[in-house]
Amino acid sequence: MHFVDLAATREIHADWWPEGETVTIRPFSWSDEQRISERSTTVDRSDPENVVVHYDNVAWNEARLDIAVTGWTFQDKSGQPVPCTTENKRRLCRQDVVFILREIQDLNKERTADEQRNF
């Protein structure tokens, strides 16, 4: 397969979420991976003899969440839908972020030759 099907989303649900609450994630394209890299690295070229690349793990995870999470069914305390925005993604609790990032990683893992043929 030459192209990533960005419409091939996966709905995920953590055991500790209320029944019916899901997050929708999508796979990354090559371009997405480049944007994630751009948002999470900086290059210090002030010394041409010693170019230093700085990697920001928080920015990397935020970019992965921002690009891969396309929707959710989360509600606030009054039962109103919480919009799936960059700002709200940054407000997620650590346990949920870890779970979602693992699911994103699984969706985007390298496939074996056999898996590629059957993909």
Brief write-up:
This protein is α+β, with helices and mostly antiparallel strands and 119 residues long. Helices cover 40% and strands 15% of the residues.
Written account of the structure:
The chain is of the alpha+beta class and 119 residues long. Helix content is 40%, strand content 15%. It has 5 helices and 5 strands. It has a 3-stranded antiparallel β-sheet. Strands 3-4 form a two-stranded antiparallel sheet. The longest helix is centred in the C-terminal third of the chain and has 14 residues, at 94-107. The mean pLDDT is 92.
What topology does this entry show?
Elements: E1 10-12, E2 23-25, H1 30-40, E3 41-44, E4 52-55, H2 57-68, E5 69-72, H3 86-90, H4 94-107, H5 113-118
Secondary structural class: alpha+beta
Mean pLDDT across every amino acid position = 92
Quaternary: single chain
Span from first to last CA? 8 Å
Instruction: Please estimate the helix content.
Output: 40-55%
Number of strands: 5
- Major sheet description: 3 strands, antiparallel
Shape: globular
Question: What pattern of helices and strands is seen along the backbone?
Answer: EEHEEHEHHH
Q: In which order are the strands of the major sheet placed?
A: 1-2-5
State Rg. Answer: 17 Å
Which stretches are poorly predicted, pLDDT < 50 over at least 5 residues?
none
**Count of helical segments?**
5
* Strand fraction: 15-25%
